[in-house]
TrEMBL record:
A single GO molecular function term of this UniProt record: zinc ion binding
Key words of the record: Membrane, Metal-binding, Transmembrane, Transmembrane helix, Zinc, Zinc-finger
Organism (species): Clostridium collagenovorans DSM 3089
Gene3D superfamilies (alphabetical): Anti-sigma factor, zinc-finger domain
Protein name as annotated: Anti-sigma-W factor RsiW
Similarity section: Belongs to the zinc-associated anti-sigma factor (ZAS) superfamily. Anti-sigma-W factor family.
Putative zinc-finger domain location: 5-34
Transmembrane intervals: 82-101
Length: 102
């Protein structure tokens, strides 16, 4: 395999999309050509970094949506409290008015 082909096949190899035959040729070239081996290792490193970032991103989005949910819970809770306060006021207000008027 030529170096040019090796680099063209690199992504397919990483994604496991190469046929058995090409894979063998690819791996043979990797073992014979230090430059391409270095290239491949760099690419694998980059891929792992990207994967890591994507995982962290998903984790972050999950955490954020959890936060938002608990915020909504708090929000409905305080809304309930407000409604209760208004109800209490509704009952107390006439009593106060009656008390003031005598
Ligand atoms: Zn090469």
């Amino acid at each position: 395999m030529e170096c040019v082909n090796f680099r063209n096949y690199m992504h397919k190899y990483i994604n496991g999309e190469l046929s058995e035959e090409l894979k063998l040729e690819f791996e043979q070239h990797r073992d014979e050509c230090p430059m391409c081996k270095m290239f491949l290792e760099e690419e694998l490193y980059l891929e792992s970094l990207i994967k890591d970032i994507k995982e962290k991103e998903t984790e972050y989005i999950c955490k954020e949506s959890n936060k938002r949910e608990s915020f909504n819970e708090k929000n409905t809770y305080s809304r309930k409290q407000a409604v209760n306060t208004i109800k209490v006021m509704y009952y107390i207000a006439p009593a106060i008015v009656i008390f003031l008027i005598g």
